[in-house]
Amino acid sequence: FLSSYNRKIGPDPASINSCMIGGIIANNSSGMACGVKNNAYHTMRSICFITANGKSYDTSVSTDYERFLNEQEFLVDGINSCRKKIIDNDHILNKIRSKYRIKNTIGYAVNALIDYEHPLDIFAHLLIGSEGTLAFISEVVLNTIEDPPIKSTGLILFDDIVTACSTIPFLSEQGASALELMDYASLATVKYLDSEPYNTNILQPNHAGLLCEFESDDKELLNNTVRESSSELEKMGGNLINPFSADAHIRENLWKVRKGLYPTVGALRKTGTSVIAEDICVHQTELPQAVHELQYIFKSWNFEDAVIFGHAKDGNLHFALSIDLNDKDGIKQFDGMMKDLVSITIGKFNGSLKAEHGTGRNMAPFVETEWGGDIYKIMWTIKTLADSNHILNPGVLLNKNKNAHLEDLKPLPLVDEKVDLCVECGFCESVCPSRNLTMTPRQRIIISREMRLPGRTPAELEELRKDFNYSGNETCATDGLCELECPVNIDTGSFIKSLRSHQHSLFSEFIANFSAKNFSFVQSLIRGGLRLGNFLGSSSMKIITHRLRKLGMKSLPIWNPLLPAPSPKISSYSSGGGEKYIYFPSCLHRTMGVSASNDSVINLLMELAPQLGVQFLIPENINSLCCGMPFASKGFDKAHHLITDITIDELYLLSEQGQIPILLDMSPCSYHISSMKFEKIDKLHFIDIIQFFHDKINVLIEYKSQSKEVLIHHTCSGQKLQQENMFEEVINSLADNVITPQINGCCGSAGDRGLLFPELTKSAAENCVNNYPEFSQSAVGVSSSKMCELSMSQVAHIPFYSIIEFVHQSLCSNNDN
Q1: Are strands 800-802 and 316-323 parallel, antiparallel or unpaired?
Q2: Which of 343, 697, 756, 800 is the most buried (most CB within 10 A)?
Q3: How far apart are CA 256 and CA 741, in angstroms?
Q4: Can you list the domains of the chain with their CATH numbers?
């Protein structure tokens, strides 16, 4: 949202696409380019908070300063006393100043007692990085910083860590906005990604890499800087395995390697083990030695899978490793590693035990080790002043139990191979359609693990299962967008489908198998239901469907007033001349008509064949065929295989063993077929409707006639097929005023899921609509899935059409003119 103004917030953690402002503030997060200068502490303009005694304050309101002094006399006196102790003691004063010259988030931000004088300003800044232990933060305003629009990113390989680190001062002087250090183990993780930005065969065990980014408002200046830097880096022993590039796709792939390191490493762990991640900070000049010390510690304690990476400009090192915390030897190994880590960070480098992720339970026992007794006492005083009953996150930031890091350890029981690799990083949560209604993918996995832990009573377990059935299972759209965001491609929707497959009764399995074998009959029933619904009217149908569901018919969809009349019969099974296509209409387009007329999407597309210079051939037994997705999404595996076997065999014959391309008119069908593993499918050539129109864009552009605002809705399937650019180019070829979402999402329709649970679609589609810039009520929308069109129309209060309807309208209206 800020990028259009070439601005951004200062903190830029690797999880920026999924994390929340509250977490950034609570941990005083920084990130790749943030450094100390632009972290949350230094860029906060104002903050609203509620103290433990229930009083609320807003630092942007001038009168709150006097009110704070009057209402919080005990806290104010204590803060002033703590400040005086620091100001009057040169040793403490200088230590605090020295500690905050590098990244440091361990303990409370006692630099606030030096940087500010008014108790409200001091307390407001003590809240940054306090992890919810002092007050509840309800709102925060951050100052933005410049975000130059032109960026160039490259990956430089070095023979060893020392050589890599020796270039950091030079690259910093050149103006590098980000310098990310990665050891050999980090660089090697790309072989587990879907798209490798470089060949891992060139890597050697001692190698290290620097991901470097330059940015500027001046393209020529940036290019000169990149050329000079590249030339000098080669002289300094660097090998540009990914030369600097301003291409957004290339840059994104490089950053995916770095940003996904923690969850990727977590996914490589032995199942059942836990992932430990920490970050320390040392002075930049001591970075090579610190890396060697970490490598020595990991080797000493047999952590063979540990990876080291970090923000090199700031001397900030992260590491991640796996360990079996269910085993006594594993806990002993973990304790030894932690104590050695503390020893070298504080004893050898006078560094920070936590650089940017807040203190946390793991480091809370070691706060005194870093700060010393006097400052540690001041921190405890602050905690007691603000929270005298110690009810706000006790033990999270300050803990007198020196073994707290070894207690209440979280196990990760095995659930299903589809999700066992999850490290609960939360990258998936921002795209989940049910995130504001019930659960996210991360939460579904966590609760599934919880249900497998020993020690619960049968009654407790049954209550969990009952709650999970709605929140975890029934309201999961199984759209798979979580897989796109997950660095290790975990599709929680696939896991939920497998759960559904184990919950079916013998009767429901029978009905599903019968439906697959008699699919033409099923479509007749659906058309009959639509005909009855349109005859009785929406009000009556809503009452009827709600009452029938209350009587136990839970699988009956709730009537949606936007459901159209049934689709008329296919008027022709062959149309046009020229290049041949087997047109495979979706079952939804076979059953549901076009809302604005008594026609069908199928007939509209057939009418376009002559203008597009193609010949469409529809299978004569089309009503008996289906891609199988309606069965697969509900976990009816046998029924799915029954109908897809029939369908693929038929298409194989009609297409002359793959010689004739097969056109699919809905993106969900296209993605589903592309993801299936059938021997004959590999020989067939399927084309999605978006790709088809994109191939004909030279024809479409001649009919450009739409002047009204046109909103594009990218379906989940379209996103997974990476069709966003093609879709936008097609609509731009026909319309002048195209509006795209600032963030793509899922509308939650998920086939009939939105009819079974309308609250899911309402919640998800509202998120989608809110992602558009402002649009008028005369606008129209375009999508490539029938149910998405219904959901978006209902929530956006404007009509959303099939891409086929939109193209037909554009071409035919132009002809009429």
Answers
A1: unpaired
A2: 800
A3: 22
A4: 3-145 (3.30.465.10), 150-369 (3.40.462.40), 429-501 (no CATH), 694-816 (3.40.50)
